[in-house]
Design brief:
The complex is a heterodimer of chains A (58) and B (136). Chain A is mainly β. Chain A has one domain. Chain A is built from no helices and four strands. Chain B is mainly alpha-helical. Chain B has seven helices and three strands, in the order αβαααααββα. In chain B, a hairpin with a 2-residue loop joins β2 and β3. The longest helix of chain B has 15 residues. The chains are: A mainly beta (58), B mainly alpha (136). Chains A and B meet through β1, β2, β3 and β4 of A and α1, β1, α2, α3 and α6 of B.
Chain lengths: 58, 136
């Protein structure tokens, strides 16, 4: 990435996988690392709240 | 509407835009690349806003005209767009979206809290307020 890239945060998704019995239910957690391009960001770089927008021009 | 959030929560909220051209939108991907090319000369948000105003006219000639309208030098812009300078970064955004199970747009994450589709200002305000409470 041309501009400085830093890790934005770790967004966690939780997916539960059920087996034959509830007691056997497994939970897996996946971390998704999002890159941030400062050119495509607005607002204070030190803001405590970050809104990430996935969008489509068309 | 998000500009209203940024204004109301000045210093507390940052907006990060991620490219997620949907598979069926064949003209969207070059439009996303073009916006990044505009960003390379400091005109990202102007071009971004222009694209939303111009939907769905995203043929190559349209993209070049929007750049020209914004005073973006033609030669480096054409080289950037035709050379696919930002193709990989747009694809990287798409891959990140897929990992988050993004299937439609817009999709928002507010400190991890998900909002699917267009939502009213009050919805964003409530989620931002909650995020700020969780930080304190």
């Amino acid at each position: 990435m041309r501009a400085l890239t830093r890790w934005l945060w770790l967004a966690s998704l939780i997916a539960s996988l059920s087996g034959l019995a509830p007691a056997l239910a497994q939970i897996t957690e996946t971390e998704v690392r999002l890159t941030l391009d400062p050119v495509m960001a607005k607002g204070s770089p030190t803001a405590p709240v970050i809104i990430v927008e996935f969008s489509d021009y068309q | 509407m998000l500009d209203q959030i940024l204004t109301e929560y000045r210093g507390k909220v940052r907006l990060v835009y991620k490219d997620f051209p949907l598979p069926g939108h064949t003209l969207a991907r070059p439009a996303h690349e073009a916006a990044r090319c505009a960003g390379a000369v400091g005109k990202y948000w102007e071009y971004h806003d222009r694209l939303f105003q111009a939907q769905p006219n995203f043929e190559r000639a349209d993209l070049l005209r929007y750049a020209s309208d914004l005073g973006i030098p033609a030669e480096p812009f054409v080289r950037c767009l035709d050379g696919g300078r930002f193709r990989g970064l747009v694809e990287a955004d798409i891959q990140q979206g897929r990992l988050l199970d993004v299937t439609g747009t817009p999709m928002f994450l507010i400190n991890g809290q998900r909002i699917e589709g267009a939502a009213p200002f009050e919805t964003f305000k409530a989620v931002v307020d909650e995020a700020l409470r969780n930080i304190r």
